[in-house]
Each structure stands twice: as C-alpha cells, then as structure tokens.
Amino acid sequence: MSTYENLSLFIDGKMTSGDSGASSDVLNPSTNAVLAKLPHAKKPELDRALAAADKGFKVWKQVNVFERAKVLRKAADLMRARVDDIAHVLTLEQGKPLMESKVEILAGADITDWFADEGRRAYGRIIPARADGVRNMVIMEPVGPVAGFSPWNFPVTQAVRKIAAALAAGCSIIVKCPEETPGSPIGIIRCFHDAGVPDGVINLVYGVPAEISEYLIPSPIIRKVSFTGSVPVGKHLASLAAQHMKRTTMELGGHAPVLVFNDVDVEAVSKMMVATKTRNAGQVCVSPTRFFLQDKIYDKFVATFTDGMKSTKVGDGLDPATRMGPLANPRRITAMQTLIQDAQEKGGKVQTGGKRIGNQGNYFEPTVLTDVPDSARIMNEEPFGPVAIMCRFKETDEALERANKLPYGLASYAFTKDGKTATKVADALDSGMVTINHFGLALPEVPFGGTKDSGYGHEGGLEGLNAYMVAKFVSQMG
Ligand code: NAD
Fold this sequence. Notes:
alpha/beta; Aldehyde Dehydrogenase, Chain A, domain 1; 7-stranded mixed β-sheet; 14 helices
C-alpha cells in the first residue's frame, strides 16, 4: 500500500521542491488531518517551466506521430500497472471510494490510449486549385506550448484529458493541477515520464492559482489555455487569454436537468439515478441536479429515489463498504448548508439528508429536496454536491422551458420509452451534451463540452485533439 509523501513540482524532467520555500497543507477530507506539505512554484519556478515547455515543444513536435503514439500507449500501460497505488493516493486526498478512484485511473489510461491513436489520424486535406500546377494543402500543426488548469473533483482524468490530447497533437504542456489533490496527478506524470516523454514536454506546477494563471497566460511562450473549473474563474481566465489572443478551451460548471416521463420503469430508473447522483458525492459538473418528473410518476419516483439516497452508505473512501465518500473540502459543506437553508426558507422541504454528518471530516448526507421554488438559489446555482431537487411537470414544453432557462448548458438527460418524445427533447434541450435513457457521456472518443456559461471547446473526441492543433494553409506552385 502506498504512503502519501514526496509531493513536488515537475519541471524539465525532474521532480523538484523549488526554491521559494512556500507551501500549503494537503488535507485528508475524511478527517481533515494534514497528509503532507505541497511545495509551491513562484516566478523563478514558473520561468523554468516556461523555458522547459518552449524547449520541449521544439523537441516533441519533431517526433513523428507513430513514435509519439508508442510513448503515450506505454504511459497508459503504466497507469494500469500502477492503478492500485495511485488510486490509494487519490482516495486519501480526494475522498472518493477506492473503486471510483480505480475506475478514474483506468479511464485516464483509456483516454491516453485513445489520443495516442487519434494523433495518428490528424489528417489535413487537399483543396482543388483554380490554377494549373498549384497544390492547395491544409496541414494540421500543433498549436504550441499549453497552459492547462485542472480541478480537484477528478484530479486524474481532468489532467489526463489535457495532457494526453496536447501530447498527441505534438504540443508541450505546463499543467497546474489542484493544490487540494496533488498526489495522484504526480503519480500520473511519473507514468508519462517513465514511458519516455522527453524532458520539458510535460511540466507540473502547484501554487496560488491566480498567481500562476496570471503569470503563465500572458507569457508569449504559451499559445493555448485550457481550464476546467467554475464559471466565474473561467470567465476571468477567458478574458485574460483574450487580452493576449490565446486560444482557449473552457470546461465550466453545469446544473444538469433530467426529464423523467410517465412511461418509465420508475424502480429501474431511480436506482440508476441514485448511483449517478452520489458518484463522487455529486461533485461532478455533469451530475444530474434538477429532476423534472412528470405528474403521474412524481410521488412514486420521489419515494423510491429518496429510499435509495437514504440507504447509500456514506463513509471513508478506503472502507470497501462505502458508496459515497466525504466532500472534497470544507468549502463544499458550507456551500451545501447555505443552499439548503435558503431553499428551506423559501418553502423547500427536505425529504432526506440536509445535514453534515458528525464533526470530523467533510461528510454530508445524500439529500433530496422537494417543493423548491424556482427563485431559490439552489435552482439557479450549481450545487456541486450530493443534492437532488425534485420538480413536478405536466407537459413536455413546460419541462423543456424550465430545463433550458438557466445560463448553464453542459449536460441534460431524459428518460422515456416514447421515441417521438425522445427525439423532441434531444433536439430541444439547450446543452452541449444530451443522453436519453442512460448517463453515458464523458467517454474518450466522444466530444465533451458545454454551451452558454458552461464554456466552449471540447475535450474528448476528434474535437478534443483539434483543440490543440492549428490549420496551416500551404499553397505550392510547381
Ligand atoms: P473555485 O472557483 O475557487 O475554483 C475552481 C477551480 O479553479 C479550482 O480547481 C481552483 O484551483 C481553480 N482556480 C481558482 N482560481 C483560479 C485562478 N485565478 N486561476 C487558475 N485556476 C484557478 O471553486 P472551488 O471551491 O475550488 O470549487 C467549487 C466550484 O468550482 C464548484 O461549485 C464548481 O462549480 C466548480 N468546479 C467545477 C469543476 C468542473 O469539472 N467543471 C471542477 C471543480 C470545481
């Protein structure tokens, strides 16, 4: 079993503590005890990372795509071989059940494999020319060194989506992974390094997030910015990137509606939804949050779903019986309490949960709310926790209007056996991703991204690779 230690930055192929002496504590969310100290990067370390990424890009873009793919595939194999150790670290620092940590690391391996292959298919095209003897070509080139900012809810996959796509395209990257959960990203970076990624191609920094983004984004070395996190921070970083004309991918928050129609099998659907809602304690940008239930199944669905939430075993992620771990940090407890109290003051009813569990660690009860008016904060702000809000509807158009009315547009879901209804809602739901009768999104091969305030650009799919490439037009005569 791995211990939790040796946290470091990774610059130009070497683990380093840097010279600043600045650091922060990493806490175990199941106890809030200190796990380790994390060294911070300041300007000198960031300058070294920038120089390394500049050098790394010049080296890596010359490596042909078949060789790049071999290195990435080896990194994926190392992730699989090291899954138990990295998963243990991930659960210690983030709180999710060990099984979810393992699934996340194996997903990281799958993402890396997929981008390894997709990099070999970064085809350009030939455009017929108007003049004899002219050949018009579009060549896909790597955009350049990337600054990536990844969050603490999926410390491995959120980082891998940026790293694997950037590397497959031929870019280098400086990734700032989350200060709350730094150990598992370090484990992943070691896999890439040990697989043969040249020095300087991947650099990992930690520190004060605003200091790092405000230093890296304006640097002329950085050509692309990719951020996953909250809407307000995303808007701030997007405007900073715009001032310096940097390409950007923004994966921001959501407040996913799920429409459940009268014709579903209530028991089966609610069981699936409890599992999805409690995954990662609801700290998932595509977690279903606003449940719009059609009139005839409303009572039965609320009762069945509430029973499922009540019987979800909450505990330490290292305990094999645990189905939902603690929230990742104390800020989430405060957020849950504030939003639930506001909903209650406005007439909302708590069917189950609603409270912190104990006074050690960040445990929170799986919560079901009913009778919450649209004016309540929780109907408008992303809860990012284990809370489901049950709303009643009669007609499809009414449900669609309420589902679409927020500024978010990340994921939406619908459950119905009727094909016409399914097509109608899939067309009408205003979000970057819609699934019908299941929750199957966020796979390596499909685009993942939002509309409206949920951001722009995609991670995953061929769109996820194109995000790290630029099309160069070359026209040749003779
Ligand atoms: P936050 O807004 O302070 O931070 C969100 C993320 O952005 C963190 O990873 C943080 O390190 C990073 N960040 C913050 N300021 C930054 C800056 N100036 N430059 C670069 N990075 C910066 O909120 P939080 O309390 O850490 O998280 C809560 C909220 O964040 C949630 O309500 C949710 O909306 C959002 N979130 C979204 C995702 C996602 O997958 N889209 C993941 C984690 C958090």
